[in-house]
Amino acid sequence: MCELFALSSRFPATVNMSLERLAEHGDRAGRNPDGWGIAYYEDRDARIVKEPRPAASSDWLRFITEHQFHSRLVLAHIRRATQGQISFENTQPFVRELGGRAHIFAHNGDFPGFHDKISPASRFRSMGESDSELAFCNLLAELEPAWLEGVPPLAERFDVVRKFAQRLREHGPANFLYTDGDCLFIHGHRRCQRAGQAPRPPGLHVLERVCSGDVDASLRGGVGVTPNPAEQRVVLVASVPLTDEDWRPLDEGELLAISGARLLVSSRT
Questions:
Q1: Which residues are paired to 174 by β-bridges?
Q2: In DSSP terms, which residues pair with 149 in a beta bridge?
Q3: CA distance 174 to 163
């Protein structure tokens, strides 16, 4: 199955070492050879780079890891195609504009029974054939009314995403990352832990870290941190733990909302 990764931090950070480890799962001989993509938020917009080829042999990914892009919010995806051809438009993460902001979505799983049709009144349409993009367009169509007059209250956004995730779980593994630039929504469900096995929890893992201003020390854990006299806080999300640290597996169906490395809402509470 695909691999997901995200970073939310108090101050801008880089994710070079974690990207390299994630890319190892996207080798031609590996499990996810069909494409990769990464999004770095910049205010209300995002810098997105993606291509429908293995991440481990990508010159673009090598360029990114060598040029120290910084962001407080990063999403990445390594693809193994299940629905839709291997093409640029089917490569994640997907992005759309809503409320004057870039909204970004990446999914790990498969929805063989998901064929929900978007209302003709909605402006969100799929450019590719993947079930993940169709699901994203459905989510934005459901969120759109709340975004007509600015950023909606977090409780309202969380409730829409929670109901959306609940519906997706009925169709198959529904691990996803979604952000509106203000909050990062993380939903863990099930995934294939080993080839040939049925999907089971956990679908995602999270790691909370407090970093000093010592850049070298932070790099040893997989994330480069911009020097800052204040305390840096980082939350990492990954399908599979990328470092030898205490990653917490998400419960089946657990949904989190995080901003600036702070947990704002959890479906557990």
A1: 109
A2: none
A3: 12
- 3-266 is classed CATH 2.60.40.10: no
pTM: 0.89
pLDDT tens-place string over residues 6-21: 999 999 988 876 777 7
Residue 192: both structure tokens together:
């294939």
* Cα–Cα distance for residue pair 80/2, rounded to 1 Å: 5
List beta partners, residue 185: 178, 257
Query: Rounded to an integer, what distance in angstroms lies between the CA atom of residue 146 and that of residue 148?
Result: 6
* pLDDT tens per residue, range 32-44: 577 899 999 998 9
d(CA 217, CA 223): 10
Q: Which of 75, 24, 14, 21 is nearest to 245 (CA)?
A: 21
CA nearest to 67, candidates 19, 28, 35? 19
